[in-house]
From TrEMBL:
Basic and acidic residues: compositionally biased ranges: 14-23
UniProt keyword Transport present: no
Ranges for region Disordered: 1-44
EC id: 2.3.1.-
Molecular function as annotated in GO: acyltransferase activity, transferring groups other than amino-acyl groups
Domain called N-acetyltransferase: residue spans: 14-155
SUPFAM superfamilies: Acyl-CoA N-acyltransferases (Nat)
Source species: Lichenifustis flavocetrariae
Protein name, per record: GNAT family N-acetyltransferase
Gene3D superfamilies with a match to the protein in the record: 3.40.630.30
InterPro entries: Acyl_CoA_acyltransferase (IPR016181), GNAT_dom (IPR000182)
Keywords linked to the UniProt accession: Acyltransferase, Transferase
Main enzyme class: transferase
Length: 171
């Protein structure tokens, strides 16, 4: 039993929505550097856009109760559709089911926001296989809703050869 108790968890605001005022149950320690600073954890991820931002982007940091960051995930809701983006798991936590859990948590948040269909633009074959293992299926880009096709990822950051995957969000 001995030893000191773990530091109390603080709740961090969702990145990308500084004026939102709402807090998410995201344990972290006070005083941690912002993840989007150059050299921060998000900078070490292989993402098409290392600075996801915009009026609709919700970027969430996921961590252990002791404050260790395990990954990030973002979503852009567009009515009943949502683009999942910037999914990243820190390398030391790979192959532990964390990416799967982050994806399911993001889809739960999207469902709470009214989304019913999720889309993803995976940047590598490995990430494409990952999303397909979670039930996402490839579709032709013209079959996607205009709002999804107009996103920065679909319209420019990801090449036209990047597959567009989709999955129905259901409980």
């Amino acid at each position: 039993m001995g030893g000191s108790p773990p530091p109390p968890a603080a709740f961090c605001r969702a990145e990308g929505r500084p004026n939102e005022g709402r807090r998410h149950a995201l344990p972290c320690r006070r005083g941690l550097p912002r993840e989007r600073r150059p050299g921060g954890p998000l900078g070490g991820c292989r993402l098409a856009d290392r600075r996801p931002s915009g009026p609709w982007t919700h970027l969430h940091r996921y961590g252990l109760f002791g404050g260790t960051t395990v990954g990030f995930g973002g979503l852009e809701p567009y009515g009943t559709d949502v683009l999942l983006r910037s999914l990243c798991v820190m390398p030391i936590f790979h192959r532990r089911g964390i990416g799967r859990n982050i994806t399911l948590l993001l889809m739960t948040r999207a469902l709470d926001l009214g989304a019913r269909q999720a889309y993803a633009l995976p940047s590598t074959q490995e990430s494409s296989a990952f999303f397909q293992s979670l039930g996402f299926a490839p579709i032709p880009r013209p079959a996607a809703p205009p709002a999804i096709l107009a996103t920065r990822q679909a319209s420019g950051l990801c090449p036209a050869s990047t597959p567009l995957l989709t999955r129905r969000i259901a409980l």
